[in-house]
């Protein structure tokens, strides 16, 4: 079936550069007005002015009525598969109860670990599918999903299996990451290296069964040191995994520098990255995945220095960090607004950060994040007149219609078809 999108007010193809988009190049965003896109066999077959394409034969012709059209959004950092929820902790946080005290009461991440261990694969699958549906409704078409709420062999494998199953069954593409080194559970407080050894012992099975593409670790004060992270991720690389780091979120330990040293695909959070870390990031292929929703939700700490990173020449992406404890939202559009308001990113930079650069942050730069002839048709029609409107009008869903591989995945309707 062929579908023609015509009378597009503004079209962002994000196809101006080969590879990830660095630094000040992120401010250069060509906009095509009154354009059309022809989709055939799930692929983009033609792009051009509406006047040239509107008579193309197509079973479905959609008058976009001057709306904005962009690539599907790529979500490069989520904790998609988990059991339970932690809404009861919000009142404790409002009362000023420190997180460590919440942990002592059995809350925090340990609550999610316990719930995930106790939840069946079937229930985790159902819950993850629900969240993917909601992500799709916000214009997301490709999603990274981390494990990390088991921190034992059985539960980590269960999370990875669920991520792979929902990836097979849901229209959205799911890219899986093994985050067994997410925290230090009770039995390993005095010997965190033993936990890392247990998680590393899973690498052969994860690789053999194709359960994850990436290995990640939380490099942070009170969690895993730079040296522990280096040793663990080097072993992951020996098994053929690409690596990522939760780095420099709370304490500036040098996680950004370690991500660069290891050639990590991304260093994520980077809220307290130092000048040295930012300089090294800018001179590398490692992508900084910034997560303003976490700082916003927790109500403390500094937002990542996106302006300094971009001006230094770094590649920047942004993400929801969807998880049950520190960023409980699938709304990437809200994160785009936070990037503008709290990290001073321009609309042009934000669009690269949620499409092209986000795709490269999860090794999908050759298939996602652009509208390009011969490429899979992951496309969003927005109820907005221009690309600047999305981060400007915050807190609501601007999506009209989402196409994944040319198939209509979500629609709010109101278009002349």
From TrEMBL:
Superkingdom: Bacteria
Record: residues binding Zn(2+): 77, 79, 246, 321
Localization in the cell: Cytoplasm
UniProt entry keywords in alphabetical sequence: Cytoplasm, Histidine metabolism, Hydrolase, Iron, Metal-binding, Zinc
Gene Ontology molecular function terms on file: imidazolonepropionase activity
Top class in the EC scheme: hydrolase
Reaction(s) catalysed (UniProt annotation): 4-imidazolone-5-propanoate + H2O = N-formimidoyl-L-glutamate
Positions annotated to bind 4-imidazolone-5-propanoate: 86, 149, 182, 249, 326
Pathway where it operates: Amino-acid degradation; L-histidine degradation into L-glutamate; N-formimidoyl-L-glutamate from L-histidine: step 3/3
One Pfam family cited in the UniProt record for this chain: Amidohydro_1
Protein name: Imidazolonepropionase
Organism: Alkalibacillus filiformis
Gene: hutI
């Amino acid at each position: 079936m062929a579908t023609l999108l015509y009378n597009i007010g503004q079209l962002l193809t994000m196809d101006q550069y080969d590879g990830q988009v660095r630094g000040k190049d992120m401010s250069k965003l060509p906009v095509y007005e009154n354009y059309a896109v022809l989709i055939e066999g799930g692929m983009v077959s033609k792009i051009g002015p509406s006047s040239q394409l509107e008579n193309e034969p197509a079973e479905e012709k959609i008058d976009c009525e001057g709306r904005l059209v962009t690539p599907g959004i790529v979500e490069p950092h989520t904790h998609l598969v988990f059991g339970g929820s932690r809404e009861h902790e919000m009142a404790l946080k409002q009362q000023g109860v420190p997180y460590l005290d919440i942990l002592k009461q059995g809350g925090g991440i340990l609550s999610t670990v316990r719930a995930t261990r106790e939840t069946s694969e079937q229930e985790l699958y159902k819950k993850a599918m629900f969240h993917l549906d909601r992500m799709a409704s916000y214009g997301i078409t490709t999603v990274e999903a981390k494990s990390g709420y088991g921190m034992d062999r059985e539960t980590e494998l269960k999370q990875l299996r669920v991520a792979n199953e929902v990836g097979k069954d849901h229209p959205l593409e799911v890219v899986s990451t093994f985050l067994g080194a997410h925290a230090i559970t009770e039995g390993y407080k005095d010997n965190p290296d033993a936990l890392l050894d247990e998680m590393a012992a899973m690498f052969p099975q994860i690789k053999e069964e194709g359960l994850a593409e990436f290995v990640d670790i939380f490099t942070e004060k009170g969690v895993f040191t730079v040296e522990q992270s280096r040793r663990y991720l080097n072993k992951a690389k020996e098994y053929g995994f690409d690596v990522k780091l939760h780095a420099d979120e709370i304490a500036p330990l040098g996680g950004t520098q370690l991500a660069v040293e290891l050639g990590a695909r991304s260093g994520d959070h980077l809220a307290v990255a130092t000048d040295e870390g930012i300089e090294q990031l800018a001179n590398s292929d490692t992508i900084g995945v910034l997560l303003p929703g976490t700082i916003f939700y927790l109500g403390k700490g500094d937002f990542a220095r996106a302006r300094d990173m971009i001006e230094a020449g770094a590649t920047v992406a942004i993400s929801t960090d969807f998880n049950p404890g520190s960023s409980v939202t699938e709304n990437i559009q809200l994160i785009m607004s936070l990037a503008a308001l709290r990290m001073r990113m321009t609309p042009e930079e934000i669009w690269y950060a949620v499409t092209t650069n986000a795709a490269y942050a999860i090794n999908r730069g050759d298939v996602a994040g652009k509208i390009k002839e011969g490429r899979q048709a992951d496309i969003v029609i927005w109820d907005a007149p221009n690309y600047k409107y999305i981060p400007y009008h915050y807190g609501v869903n601007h999506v009209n219609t989402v196409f994944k591989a040319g198939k209509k995945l979500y629609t709010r309707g109101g278009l002349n078809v």
